[in-house]
Amino acid sequence: MHKSIIAAALLLSAAACAPTRDKVESVDVLEDITCATRGGCAYLNSPVKVVDQPVELPRRPYKFFPLAEQLNFIDARSRDWVAPRGTLTDGASIPPIFVSLVGSPTAPEYVNAGAVHDAYCGVGNEGGANYHNAEWQAVHRMFYDALIASGTPDQRAKIMFAAVWLGGPRWNTYERLDLIPAGAKRAGLRKAMTYVQTSNPSLRQLERKLRRIQQDLWNEYPDLYPTMVSGDEREEVYEEEYYEEYYSEGESSGGTANGSGL
Length: 262
Fold this sequence. Notes:
By secondary structure, this protein is mostly helical. The protein has helices spanning 2-16, 21-31, 99-102, 111-121, 136-149, 154-167, 182-199, 203-220, 234-252, and strands at residues 42-44, 65-66, 71-74, 80-83, 88-89.
């Protein structure tokens, strides 16, 4: 009898401590390790130096310039991201379909972040040493950190992060959005911008919001991505598994992102 009473008390205690969504969101903020929440982010060999030999690429409104010297960026988790000499960059890697919403990608505070991001996924750098040399999610998250380290205001950096998440390149994944019409993706970015401006989310919370937006896009165009259409809780389950794995790996990893860390 005594043991059963103790067991019942333990069950009640566990139920009382069960995490609510509010508690989960609070933990997200505490665990959100970015250049906005932790020091130590830095560029090496900054500001970016380019060769004055512009390169024009098809269907790109801005001129590209090759880096004259290597540029390194150390993010909030002490990862070293490398933009080698010769990397082509046009500014801040903003997808062309979002320029009307986000604005010109060539402002001075964007160029360092844009150059490093371009080294990993920018058009014209397909033969580069670090092209796709990290997961696409990590590369876009690094872009946010690099913007913060360059002096970009947090809200602005999150909106630019949302733009590359929804409209930028993805690789080695089935989670694609490239066939979704540009107008629908612009509507998705507007939702993300409103969320950033009204809710002041952590970056982790913003990523969750972006995953919900992309699921809505898949559901809106079921013929384009039939395997991604979801009418159940499968996406939410995947979402939690993804964050547990991604953030625990990021926390324990102190390697570089130039081929030895990711």
